[in-house]
Amino acid sequence: xxxxxxxxxxxxxxxxxxxxxxxxxxxxxxxxxxxxxxxxxxxxxxxxxxxxxxxxxxxxxxxxxxxxxxxxxxxxxxxxxxxxxxxxxxxxxxxxxxxxxxxxxxxxxxxxxxxxxxxxxxxxxxxxxxxxxxxxxxxxxxxxxxxxxxxxxxxxxxxxxxxxxxxxxxxxxxxxxxxxxxxxxxxxxxxxxxxxxxxxxxxxxxxxxxxxxxxxxxxxxxxxxxxxxxxxxxxxxxxxxxxxxxxxxxxxxxxxxxxxxxxxxxxxxxxxx
Length: 273
Ligand SMILES: C[S@@+](CC[C@H](N)C(=O)[O-])C[C@H]1O[C@@H](n2cnc3c(N)ncnc32)[C@H](O)[C@@H]1O
What we know:
Number of domains: 2
Number of helices: 13
Bound molecules: S-adenosylmethionine
Shape: elongated
Radius of gyration: 21 Å
CATH architecture of the largest domain: 3-Layer(aba) Sandwich
Distance between the termini: 63 Å
Structural class: alpha/beta
Helix content: 40-55%
Number of strands: 9
């Protein structure tokens, strides 16, 4: 069977997803696929493509199928052990880089809930700053370590498996703490897309009944780990929740600036001591 045949025969998933699956299986760039539609596909490869198409039909995210997601122009390895990095999270990296340009003395940074390592690795790659990446999931940290190695950032990153700051020595202070912690509430959980709810790790998404349980603990613990004039940059899930977490950060003495994403939803809080 030729590439052109499988493209014309497969109707159950989108064309772009199919091209991505073919490109992943044949280790060819997408443009090459379109320029070589007469190429014969071996039986084993064909069976593999068909299996991946079935996975996609039952809702498996394309990034888990192709084991890759671009974040801040870097190709991150991803699988079911980690949340797929979202484009809106790039806002946190942009904010951190802007602050780092103005305050080049900043040298102690922590990425809380690192998952695939997206935030910490993107910052480390751009600045060479040493970063501590923390996650409660050992499995997620294996993926983050793999990414640090694949993206050649491993020298300047330290990985810690910990429930928030529990594994960080009391008295150790950071100039900047970034956090994209789980923030989906119990009420929102049923409305979450199947692709997300059935495939991505619940521990990466579910933030307790009200959605802010992890952030509440984070806000209680962070004063012990933040330098006096330090920065906290958090991703949040919308206006109501943003207001609540902003209040928590203000209670511990930070001045908080709110930023919205492209859909005009409150997405990021920057607290400054
Ligand atoms: C929303 S994901 C963010 C992943 C990644 N930072 C990103 O932006 O793509 C939240 C991450 O926080 C981790 N996490 C959840 N509860 C945690 C806790 N109590 N302490 C540390 N990490 C936690 C999850 O394992 C998950 O990797």
